[in-house]
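Figure 6 in text form: structure in, sequence out.
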């Protein structure tokens, strides 16, 4: 389904590209990332224990991510400028449906052909957060 939809939109390459063998992102703590990128450190030392990549891997669609975030920012900013807080549009969605771990796992992993939802590899942490919520 994903490939068919992508082709209808004129996309010739797969949405999720495979990782490049041997490519390194340079794992570093958020503390060192903030110091390098922004010239400041986070208060306290807890961010020294959380990690991220030093750069975006070549197989990631960073431009697509940036464009998506820009669109979200534009909609939220425009709504707020018009006096509408977009979060209020979600209020009618209450009460929400029951938490469905299997459905969420499937939804979160659809389209990723290179690993399953519980595999910890290729910068994927696995879908373990749902068990905390349950």
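Output sequence:
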């Amino acid at each position: 389904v994903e490939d068919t939809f992508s082709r209808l939109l004129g996309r010739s390459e797969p949405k999720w590209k495979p990782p490049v063998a041997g490519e390194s992102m340079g794992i570093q703590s958020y503390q060192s990332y903030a110091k390098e990128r922004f010239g400041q450190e986070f208060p306290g030392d807890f961010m020294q224990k959380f990690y991220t990549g030093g750069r975006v891997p070549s197989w990631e669609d960073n431009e697509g991510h940036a464009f998506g975030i820009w669109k979200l920012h534009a909609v939220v900013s425009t709504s707020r400028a018009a006096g509408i807080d977009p979060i209020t549009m979600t209020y009618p969605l209450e009460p929400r449906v029951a938490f469905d771990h299997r459905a969420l796992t499937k939804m979160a992993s659809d389209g990723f052909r290179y690993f399953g939802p519980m595999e910890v590899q290729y910068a994927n942490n696995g879908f373990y957060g749902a068990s905390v919520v349950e």
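Caption detail: The beta strands are 27-29, 51-53.
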